Amino acid sequence: xxxxxxxxxxxxxxxxxxxxxxxxxxxxxxxxxxxxxxxxxxxxxxxxxxxxxxxxxxxxxxxxxxxxxxxxxxxxxxxxxxxxxxxxxxxxxxxxxxxxxxxxxxxxxxxxxxxxxxxxxxxxxxxxxxxxxxxxxxxxxxxxxxxxxxxxxxxxxxxxxxxxxxxxxxxxxxxxxxxxxxxxxxxxxxxxxxxxxxxxxxxxxxxxxxxxxxxxxxxxxxxxxxxxxxxxxxxxxxxxxxxxxxxxxxxxxxxxxxxxxxxxxxxxxxxxxxxxxxxxxxxxxxxxxxxxxxxxxxxxxxxxxxxxxxxxxxxxxxxxxxxxxxxxxxxxxxxxxxxxxxxxxxxxxxxxxxxxxxxxxxxxxxxxxxxxxxxxxxxxxxxxxxxxxxxxxxxxxxxxxxxxxxxxxxxxxxxxxxxxxxxxx
Length: 425
Hints:
Elements: E1 5-8, E2 24-26, H1 33-36, E3 44-47, H2 60-68, E4 72-76, H3 79-87, E5 93-95, H4 97-103, H5 131-143, H6 149-160, H7 169-176, H8 180-193, H9 196-209, H10 229-238, H11 249-259, H12 263-279, H13 285-291, H14 316-324, H15 339-342, H16 347-357, H17 368-379, H18 384-393, H19 399-406, H20 411-419
Parallel strand pairs: 1-2, 1-3, 3-4, 4-5
Helix pairs in contact: 3-4, 5-6, 7-8, 12-13, 12-14, 14-18, 17-19
């Protein structure tokens, strides 16, 4: 299978400057993007730009997880250069002068490569100047003796005093004061000769495009350790129920979560077992919560403790524990198919049941609104708050996750089965 070649590029190399070639361009990388691509061993990824302020940035563990799978990852020019400098000992490659500065310890802050920019739909136009580009341009002007050391030092101080979101050309000129003419020279140099980030990005694309993609490399041992919650979720969602199975483990669990009438009971047993193992307490749900440092349960009519049809016989503490349970570090509820969820059913039986309910591969998924309507009916949930509680006590993080997973199933068939007389099922 031909390796894929993907580059995450934004304002460092706007669309008109991106060379045609083997790379598929994607917007600046954010946390989760590498998992979403379902990368295969031997695929090649170039990270140039990445977000880090309004969205979670690309995490080191996410890159380590892909390196462990045999994916080739290179960083350059911007956030990619910083990540490459931090992870080159684990197999990530770095290219370019910005990477070299970061590797040498002269560049350490994300803010030094950051810019304010428009999104890709508006051409990823850069609106401000990165500090690393200002410093490099000043060094070139000093070397050419266009500026003297005093002017260069004052211009660098002026630029550094501005936040990266405010370091636009007009703002730099206003802040330059008596060095306005020298600032004009700096900005003209950046415009006419290009900044170092842009040069690095273009160089990396040309360099990698000229080379054949190497075969998957053996990842160094540490890259396979410390999986993040995103990596664990990705692994669970792509793991077959059993070897050779066409049904995934996550979809098999979802089938039970969504449609098994007694799944809240199974989920309660699961949360009690794992919470007890974590706290070392084998008592009641209230004692487990107390051992974990939680205050005594609130009044039974508190919103998160209210009963539903499925949990009317539970204690308040049991409802609170089941609805709030998370695996460390606090994001996932499930990362595998535990025995409590299967409840004595064999994997072959679960696989056959799930296959009967799954949509055909070419069939369109039901609209999201229809999924919510059916789940309300299946769970016998009336008010919006009761519907949210039903999702929590079935081990979903929220109703949106439940509806997303329900999209893989044939809801028309499930509706027909739900409404058929018991004797006809």
